[in-house]
Design a protein that fits this description.
The complex is a heterodimer of chains A (386) and B (378).
Chain A (H helix, E strand, L loop, with lengths): L2 H16 L26 H12 L18 H13 L9 H13 L2 H12 L5 E4 L15 E4 L3 E12 L6 E7 L9 E7 L5 E6 L8 E12 L3 E2 L5 H18 L9 H4 L1 H6 L1 H29 L7 H24 L15 H9 L9 H12 L6
Parallel strand pairs in A: 1-4
Antiparallel strand pairs in A: 2-3, 3-7, 4-5, 5-8, 6-7
Chain B lengths: L6 H17 L2 H9 L8 H10 L17 H14 L5 H13 L3 H12 L5 E4 L14 E5 L2 E12 L6 E7 L10 E7 L5 E7 L5 E12 L4 E2 L5 H37 L1 E2 L2 E2 L4 H30 L4 H26 L11 H13 L4 H12 L2
Helix pairs in contact in B: 1-4, 4-7, 5-6, 5-7, 7-8, 7-9, 7-10, 8-9, 9-10, 9-11
Classes of the chains: A alpha+beta (386), B alpha+beta (378).
The site of one flavin-adenine dinucleotide (FAD) has 12 residues of chain B, from helix 8 and helix 9.
Chain lengths: 386, 378
Amino acid sequence: MSDLENFRAETRAWLEANCPAEMRLPIKGEDDMCWGGRNFKFKNDAQKLWLDTMAQRGWTVPDWPKEYGGGGLNPAETKILKQEMASLKCRSPLSSFGIWMLGPALLHFGTEEQKKHYLPQIARGEIRWCQGYSEPGSGSDLVSLQTYGEDKGDHWVVNGQKVWTSYADKADWIFCLVRTDKNDKYKGISFLLFDMESEGVSTKPIKLISGNSPFCETFFDDVKVPKDQIVGELNRGWDVAKYLLGHEREMISGGGLSADMPSIGAAFAEVAELDPILRAEFAAFDVETLAFRAMSEKFMDELKAGKGHPAQPNMMKYAGTELNKKRHELIMAAGGSDALEWESEASNHGAKPRGWLRTKANSIEGGTSEIMLNVISKRILDLPGA
Amino acid sequence: MPLYHNDDQQMLADAAQQFIADKGSVAHLREFRDKNCKDGFGHDLWREFGEMGFNGILVSEEEGGLGLGHQEAGIILKEIGRNLTPSPFLTTAIAGIEALNAGSKNLREKYVPGILAGETVLSLAIEEHSKHRPDHIAMSAARSGNGFKLNGAKKFVIHGGSSDMVIVAARTAGGVNDREGITLFAVDKDVAGMEINAVRLVDSAVAAHINFNDVEITADAVIGEVDQGADVLDRLLRAGRVGAAAEMVGVGQGAMDITVNYIKERKQFGRVIGEFQGLQHRMSHLYSEMQIADAAVLKAQQLLDEGSEKAELMISVAKAKVGKATNLSVREGVQMHGGVGMTDEYDIGLYMKRDRALSEFFGDASYHVQRVAQIYGY
Ligand SMILES: Cc1cc2nc3c(=O)[nH]c(=O)nc-3n(C[C@H](O)[C@H](O)[C@H](O)COP(=O)(O)OP(=O)(O)OC[C@H]3O[C@@H](n4cnc5c(N)ncnc54)[C@H](O)[C@@H]3O)c2cc1C
Ligand SMILES: Cc1cc2nc3c(=O)[nH]c(=O)nc-3n(C[C@H](O)[C@H](O)[C@H](O)COP(=O)(O)OP(=O)(O)OC[C@H]3O[C@@H](n4cnc5c(N)ncnc54)[C@H](O)[C@@H]3O)c2cc1C
């Protein structure tokens, strides 16, 4: 057996022995995932055990270096681990903006002290992060942001308002874009990290069409941020922000599609038999899903080999999120009146309609589909004036 | 295996790109169309394909080929597609060879050297309907003496009028829809009773409707086993489908590229039209569709080369996806060219025509979407 085949066999055996049965059931929604953090309430013992076991092995972040709490796996091994987890239906042990977004940015831009300090905490799920980018006047046009950090020697004093800050009320720390120079639109933004318990930070939840309120308005009122909590250079936070957005887009694009997801038509075979038009839509959707998954695999493989086009995540995000929305439209259509139940026990408190409504944000959060298309036009197709 | 071309494959791609752009460009297609060539393709170029070694990609090294797989075949096909090169490559060196690879050594000795040299051309007489229905074969091959007597009719036999040998799927037993009882035959041209009516298609290729009237062939023309031809046919179809899909990726990308270039040049309202977001977003969407189609085809080729049982599913996904994406590419291409897109002088229309033909070849998008549902069991 080759090394990789050995690795696959060992990984599979280890997962079978260590992944609790409850952590092999399908995830019912955002509430059902493990987010970690200071105040996180685990759903059950299995969820905590699974997080600790995986973190111990560095497998919450398998491809990060070992010294920062990672598993030190190479790309091929990481791919195998994912495949084996998917085939055994093991849940991801930790859902975390720290892993998906901040971690890669710290690995790339952080100082050695910052890496040693923040990354292991992220890997173990000790600190829950939120993202402070958007402001009421600055969404797609993010560089127009106004939140201001005034230089006070050894610290900044930050004032302003963020909006759409996902889980701000549950997060421990925030990674935040702050204007530190009012004269240069692009080169006047810095990337700051700070504790949400700092004096002057307050949050107010925003209720969504799904009835849930995963995000907030976030207010900063004379918040003191020490100087060593800046990532990257002063006034060059936009570089960090863009790098991080690439990872965010990649993460959102895979949402719900990259896992070993069964055929939607097979899942709703009875409906398919009743309704030939829906059957055709299911089948067309299954084609799209498998094709998208191939693209996703190709992109990941290229990325790891340093061959990918840097703007490809935008394309993945665009295609993946539109597809995920379509999938939930089909789930609603297949469910019929059952899928309309909003509160009953049987409907798992309206998981289907709430899930469907949630997906509508996929093509807005982390940059809208229109913005993705703009980026492709400009950076890949090189169209003028884009 | 990672899902991108390795270094050897990339070298092949570079060589193929250069060679086919030089020798088999759209100008080449126009030349053969305009001189109303009865074959619809150039024999000189076919021989040069042979010299380049392309024709032996799926032929084992012992038999003088390169012993490579469908990923490499797809590399050539994509360039053929991008340049709209008229060529018997797909029917002969891909689908035809795959059938012969399942046949006897004698048959291979008879045909393979000519194919490798670019002397021999094969065609495929499978279809009996205007839509792809390879599980519906009525044509009969009745035993007669030591051999068989063929009766029936076939359609959409690409290069049927100019091929040296036709691979014919006929029935030696069973009813029209039965899997058992199909047999594949290697039928040489010029046998008595084979009535070939060549017709030019919308993309300037020449196909044939063939009537078989008591065509007598010997037993050594059987490819594989008598009555057990369905397996060989499947093998031929897998290669043909994934190959046609690869060619279509080339067509779609080629159409997209010339359109992107066009909208960067053409000015209206005092600006190049590529500045208008109404066009940019559609172009970017199209780009994304072509990328997905390309990956789906590569994945299908890889699974087929690995002998994976998932190949069947992914081949249909690939042909279906590329069918939709390339169709979008040529339609958007003509539209974004405005009036000139309707003229013969501009190439974009030629892409639209080739797409139409290739999408029917080996099953259109609906056929393969339907097949995905069947494979999944709903
Ligand atoms: C569920 C969810 C979670 C989020 N989480 C966070 C978070 O944690 N942290 C955070 O900072 N932000 C978060 N956001 C905010 C998100 O990043 C913004 O909503 C997004 O960037 C769009 O900005 P906007 O809402 O201001 O829309 P606008 O910019 O006002 O856009 C409105 C419409 O105009 C279109 N449009 C705008 N500009 C152009 C253009 N140039 N060309 C063509 N069309 C254009 C847009 O595509 C959109 O359709 C979240 C949003 C959602 C929905
Ligand atoms: C079969 C045929 C018959 C015709 N008959 C006549 C006739 O009898 N008399 C006559 O005078 N003309 C005739 N025309 C010409 C026809 O009116 C023009 O082709 C048409 O107005 C488009 O102009 P164009 O071809 O220059 O395309 P362009 O203006 O070059 O447009 C190219 C592409 O860019 C797009 N585009 C252009 N501007 C914008 C914008 N601002 N925003 C977004 N997209 C844009 C267009 O929609 C198109 O997709 C005919 C054309 C055809 C094809």
